[in-house]
Design brief:
The structure holds two protein chains of two kinds. Chain A contains seven helices and ten strands. By secondary structure, chain A is an alpha/beta fold. Chain A has a domain of 139 residues: Rossmann fold, CATH 3.40.50. Chain A is globular. Chain B is an all-alpha fold. Chain B has one domain: MetI-like (MetI-like fold), CATH 1.10.3720. Chain B starts with 15 loop residues before the first helix and ends in a 6-residue tail after the last helix. Chains A and B meet through β6 and α2 of A and α7 and α8 of B. Chain B: Pfam families: BPD_transp_1. Chain B: Belongs to the binding-protein-dependent transport system permease family. Chain B: Keywords: Cell membrane, Membrane, Transmembrane, Transmembrane helix, Transport. Chain B: It is a multi-pass membrane protein.
């Protein structure tokens, strides 16, 4: 008897998304298994953010199905927490602690327990001492940490991140990438991460999905090797895929 | 040069007087104005045209002690509260309707474009015909003066909410009423408070103007009616005392009530400036 394959957390079946006459995504098939870190990479206009929005339930596919644990996705929900690129994704009228506890409070968790779990997450994202700060007093990187902590507080089936570090300075971005990997080791969440940076894709992904534009479709799916030298080779391959005219330089 | 051996001068903490400085400045301006008033009054030397500041204060004190001024102010504020509350309730319904549907949005835009420029006091003759001489007519014109200013501001506030914030609410599983109350309402609060302030100013001046035409009933009226009565009796110092009360109430509501509301909400959240 063959061992039963683990059922995928997420499955996309021939998903197409059209905006009027423009086809943003064409017949995308995709499965994501538990604990995986899938990175969507591609040039502007390849539909990677559109794909993420469809997984998040913010956008209904024109054709095909998006299945979460086998159930069709109909609308956004806290089982798929999205971390946006924008800094204004925190609720300005709630403190750091209240922002992180909010998904728990909405899920009916008692105030004291929600606060305790928020405090634990605040410590894990390195913001100890900022519990009672309001978002407008935080730097961009700190706001992003709070947004990640809030997403993790909901214990989602999927963590969706839409170019979360693109608006950060280079040093902060590097640090946030390392911390995201560390948090993944602690929490073991399943991640779908959108970026246009090849370097970031290779650093963060366990699998990389390359999308090509006009219309957006899957160009390649690549597993990320553990060995650093092999990773350099992967970066080269991605460069050839995404920037064919400069690959020989 | 700093040699590292001498202790640095102690850093001065924010002193208490610093917090009072704006208040002191305001008091200084008021003092100068009062002085100018007093001098001008003495120079004119005609109580029937321009009573002095001290005469006005004396009249103000007399009317306060006799209990007439507080009673008149209370009468005005009671009518105002009714009209203000009715205006806010109607504005809330219209804005919720506008947020929920494109037809509601169009309806609100059209109605505000029609009625916002129309001075509420212009409706008074019609209100008198419909509701007669009395509080209902006043409440009607005050409601009208508050409604459009508040609805217009709240609606544009909701439309200015960053789309990311709305998506965050949806991501947390909020929809419909829950999304409106938990995300959209607090996010639009700066614009809503601005609307409340404008609505208050409109309501207050509309009320005083309407009261100049008639009191709420034959026995007692509000501050506007007091001003009108005393002018007919040529008690000009008491006319001035009435005006002073109108101004003072306006200052207190603006400077204390709304300022406190702003400090506790939009200022603390960094949504303003």
């Amino acid at each position: 008897m063959a061992p039963a394959a683990e059922p995928p957390v997420l499955a996309l079946e021939r998903v197409s998304i059209r905006f009027g006459a423009v086809t943003a995504l064409q017949e995308v098939d995709l499965t994501v298994t538990s604990g995986e870190r899938l990175v969507l990479v591609g040039p502007s206009g390849c539909g990677k953010s559109t794909l993420l929005a469809a997984i998040g339930g913010f956008l209904a596919p024109s054709a095909g199905r998006v299945l979460l644990d086998g159930q069709p996705v109909r609308r956004p929900g806290p089982d798929r927490m999205m971390v946006f690129q924008e800094f204004d994704q925190l609720l300005p009228w709630k403190t750091v602690s209240q922002n992180i506890a909010y998904p728990l409070r909405l899920a009916g968790v008692a105030r004291a327990e929600a606060r305790d779990r928020a405090e634990e997450l605040i410590r894990q994202v390195g913001l100890a001492g900022f519990s009672t700060a309001y978002p407008h007093t935080l730097s961009g990187g700190m706001k992003m940490r709070v947004a990640i902590a809030r997403a993790l507080a909901a214990r989602p089936r999927l963590l969706l991140m839409d170019e979360p570090f693109a608006a950060l300075d280079a040093l902060t971005r590097r640090r946030m990438q390392q911390e995201l990997l560390r948090l993944w080791q602690e929490h073991g969440f399943t991640l779908v991460f959108v970026t246009h940076s090849i370097e970031e894709a290779v650093l963060l992904g366990s699998r990389i999905l390359v999308l090509s534009p006009h219309p957006g479709r899957i160009q390649a799916v690549l597993d990320v090797p553990e060995a650093p030298t092999a990773r350099l080779g992967l970066e080269g391959e991605l460069n050839r895929l995404l920037l064919p005219e400069t690959a020989d330089v | 040069m700093f040699d590292g051996t001498r202790p640095l001068p102690a850093v001065q903490g924010p002193s208490v007087t610093l917090a009072w400085r704006p208040l002191l400045r305001r008091a200084g301006v008021l003092l100068v104005l009062a002085l100018a008033w007093e001098l001008y009054g003495r120079w004119i030397a005609n109580d029937l045209i321009f009573p002095t500041f001290l005469d006005t204060i004396a009249a103000f004190w007399r009317l306060t002690v006799s209990g007439e001024l507080p009673a008149r102010a209370a009468s005005s504020l009671e009518v105002l509260a009714m009209g203000y509350a009715a205006g806010l309730a109607l504005a809330a319904v219209l804005v919720l309707f506008a947020v929920a549907s494109t037809f509601g949005s169009e309806l609100l835009s059209t109605l505000t474009a029609m009625f916002n420029p129309l001075p509420a006091i212009a409706l008074l003759p019609l209100a008198l015909l419909w509701f007669g001489l009395g509080a209902p007519s006043l409440v009607f014109v005050i409601t009208h003066s508050v409604l459009w200013a508040v609805a217009l501001n709240a609606h544009s506030g909701v439309r200015a909410i960053p789309p990311t914030l709305r998506r965050v609410g949806e991501n947390l599983g909020l929809r419909g009423w829950q999304l409106a109350l938990r995300i959209l309402a607090p996010a639009a609060l700066p614009a809503v408070i601005a609307g409340l302030k404008i609505g208050w100013a409109f309501a207050w001046r509309t009320l005083i103007a309407a009261e100049l035409v008639f009191g709420t009933n034959s026995r007692s009226g509000g501050l506007g009616w007091l001003i009108f009565e005393r002018r007919n009796n040529l008690q000009i110092d008491e006319v001035f005392a009435g005006l002073l009360a109108v101004i003072a109430i306006g200052l207190v509501v603006e400077g204390v009530l709304f300022r406190t509301l702003e400090r506790r909400t939009v200022d603390r959240w960094g949504l303003q400036r």
